[in-house]
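DATA SHEET
Item: assembly model
Revision: 1
Owner: S.N.
Input lines:
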Amino acid sequence: MHIDLKKEVAHSGSGRFGIALFLLIVILAIFAPLLAGYDPTAQSPVDLESPSLSHLLGTNHVGQDIWSQLLYGARTSLLVGLSVAFLSTLLSAIIGASAALIGGLYDSIVMRVVDALIVIPVIIVLILVAAYLQPSLWILIILLSLLGWQGGARIVRAQALSLKEGMHVSAARSFGASRLYLIFRHILPDLSPILLVELIYSMRRAVFMEAGLAFIGISDPNMVSWGMMMRESLEFSYLDVWLWWLLPAGIALSLTIVSITFVGHALEPVMDPRLRGEASA
Amino acid sequence: MVRMFSKRNLTIYAIALLLILGLNFLLPRMMPGDPLMAIYGKDALVQMTPDLQADLVERFSLDESMWQQFGAYFVALFKGDLGYSYHFNEPVFDVILGRLPWTLLLVGLSLILSTILGIVLGIESGWRRGSKTDKTMLGGIMALNGFPDFFLGMVLLLVFGVSLGILPLAGAMTPYSGLSGGALVLDVLKHLLLPLAALTLAHLAGGYLLTRNTMITVLKEPYMLTARAKGLPSRVLKYRHAGRNSMLPVITMTGIWLGRVVMGELFIEIIFSYPGLGYLTYEALLARDYPVIQGVFLLGATLVLAANFLVDLCYPRLDPRIRHAH
Amino acid sequence: MLRIKDLRVNYGQEQILKGIDLEVRDGECLAIVGESGAGKTTLGLSIMQLLEGRVQGEIFLDGLDLLSLPEKSMEEIRWDRVSMVFQNANNVLNPVHTVIEQVMEPMIEHHLSDRSEAKERAWQLLTRAGLPRDRFSAYPHQLSGGEQQRVLIAMALANDPELVILDEPVSSLDAASRAEIIGLLKSIGRDHTFIVISHDISSAAKLADKIATMYGGRIMELGPVSEVLSRPRHPYTRALLRSYPNMTTVKDLQGIKGRMTRPVTGCPFHPRCTQAIEVCAQETPSLAPTQGRYVACHRGGIITLLAARNLSKSFGPLKAVDSVSLSIEGGETLALVGQSGSGKTTLAKTLMGLWESDDGEVYLEGTKVDNRGKDFYRKVQMIFQNPGESLSHRLSVLELVREPLDIQGIGTKEEREHKVMRVLEEVELPNKGEFLERYPHHLSGGELQRLSIARALVLDPKVLIADEPTSFLDSSLQAKVLKLLLNLQEQRGLSMLFITHDIALSRKISDRMAIMLQGRIIEEGASNEVVTDPAHPYTESLVKSASDLHSKSEGLAQALFDQPL
């Protein structure tokens, strides 16, 4: 498979748009302290104020600056998103590849467990666990990773299986190269495109889940989250305040997810070359 | 994203069920402190008499080994005893049963609608790949997909419920209205409209994208040329020939996507105060009503497993290559 | 019924069909034969208007120009009046519908019948196509290749179309199914008009009345099947038949020189044609009638190079050559078979002008030869039985091969030497160093014969007269020399008059054979026919006494006692 990932994204209009948007969000998140103006957790007596020059998006019910919350919320989303994506893709890769390469009983057992885990609805497990544990950021990240790697593992395993055939051929020809050498030199590089796509979709899920959980109330109380913002704003839905409280948070979340989606879509021909030749959306 | 269909047999579901039961069983018992408190929660405990507490300890063998506890737990499940909710003052089983139909209604309808809509739009889009219609639909639906279902629900609620005030804000029916027959059905539908719209719109992208992608591949197959050569009208080509083949992967994925819909259902119920299992979970979470949480977890997970199983059974009926594999 | 006029199909920059003219009459079966890339499938699809490229020209179905029709009207015509049996690859049938449903579908959608009528008719069609009844409700992937083919045939006949196009109907089948399907098609073909597209000449021959050979997007030859296959008049058709292993022809397989290219101007075949002239690269020849069929060739088909008419030569009272007429065509081998004393060598020498004829004429490329000057010898060369005798022992290899060039005064010294090198390479002799300095008595028999061939070739002749060129050689050497001659024919289009007493040998190297007895040609014809069905008793005896590897010597005994085998 000769795939130039950069080319795939560069050629697709939606891909370019996605990357651009995502980078914008990343920049805003990184420079949040500079751009915010207020400590997002600092409460003030100026509550439920409409947007003004001092508070770009107004304040919430306890006087916190919404614009600052928005920026710091980006940090939370991106942090959780990237960490979970990285961890779960790593798990997918290790478990999927090992199942394919080791084969035999190990493979059968692992895949049975994976299939079983796939059918279990994630959110319900999360709620149950969250009911007992008080989630901190890291517990959240670990939980989400543990519940998110299964789908990817199946894909990685399938790809690794087909590469394994090629590996045997090259092993026969390359004068007894060790298995490890072949894995690192041949299989892993060929798996990278698939892993990348998996990473992207994993991040999308993670951002969504983090916001959703925060929305129900399951989040790290020290971190600002867009989901939490939306949850809080819901109680005041009868006031006009939702326009600059709920909407920005929701739109920010949506834009983040959309940008990741577009990048993922541009890379889809990686998984299925038959889709190439797509006119950019 | 294209995922492969795997033949899941009963062992998978058995393992999954076991995992669920195990988790449900182990989690409270692994918490530090008094197991009774972990299972029932501090508030509930306050309400119980010492006699009741002792009785419960006995029933669930809480002072004995893990294995005996699991045995007692299992036996209780078999008898349909999911515990007692002190928050609602009813057996958990009854509480859940009361909310279940509403959830089934909403989830069922939205699943069916979003699947059908997704497939139809995917077929039409794939057929016209590259055209303006296709590009607009593709961009539009992908953008729509970026909106989390709860955000979509909130926007709909605020726009149609609060600002425009044309649709109800909460509940599944107008309370204390005493309606019946046709009027009742209409009332229910009115309340159902916004939550259903939110859920359906948020989840049709999956089916749409997958169908569209499959359609693109299918249209290149030799049998499409054969069908064209038969002089068949484009409607027949699109649906009977291409569509029938393109919808297969979506059906496979329905089981997997069910988890997402369930999550969306949870959020939507919260937003619209819709009296289903999701809202129940939310209330229970706030009140730390552990028996209810566990009950919903158990039932919810089991139902999802059952639905998956059903889909697995249905798929071979639709794809003759699987049904009559050599 | 179907008339195609100047059909041109372009796909992007490439022109796939370069102007096709065809006619098919009611009830006829036309076979379109060619190799991959010729454009056969494109032609079939263009009739049904299923192509994506740009189509120009006219296709008349009973007077209605299909290319001018809007898509909606074309939809109605498809499968109603013209249907197609597609090449049976994977997934030609929709995998999610039963086969009987797929046969019924066009009937229902074209509003010809309701469901129950359609089902009944589908039932009949599938039965006629030979599909077992329990297979009717099966899905395509459950059927074997032969069964799928039957479904495709039944489906094509669903709406009783006037014209059915069959694209490789039997190529994917095993031999047994192939024969069955051909039989089925033959019986169905009586009530319909068929166009069969195939690369398999044998099945095309069995099914068709007319055959057209296609190359590079144009039709090369078009005519009745028996005529075209037994006596092809176009160089490509002949080359195609020569390269096709079958149980009829006896000559060794030969290919076509060069590779398939797509020249923009001129005849598509001209880069690989061994009788191409200047105009062939410039103008595209159109199909012209000749000898009972149509041929697209600027030279009117395969040319006659050398011909003799009523040639006679006597030595006193002995008529060595008695009123002999024969002709040698471009790029073919004519074997002259006869025993010693039959007059074959005399005939050869008379043709060459080494003996002067008493009567009759010789024609070279159509013009009568009166005086054989340098031009004649540039075109006609001869090699003799005993190379040792015909090669001067005083000249070195280089000098020997260069001699004809020296005599004819062709080119500079360097150019001549260059030519010598090239021709030595062609006959697989070393062309460097000390070999060039060697003298004939230091060479082996096989090398000598190759040397004489090289010398004969250095002038680039069109005809090579070879008089028993291998009789002095061991069989293994003989085999190599013969292979070399066949290759030279393939690469240069060399014609040969191959003189031999051995009919088994001549079989392997010749397209046509002439049997000579006591100065006369008593039989002549295509090699396979002469050998398998000899008309003259002498020929028969030659065949029977020819070398064979059977352990019992029936042949000779039978010939002597004239009893059937």
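QC remark: The first helix of chain C runs from residue 40 to 47.
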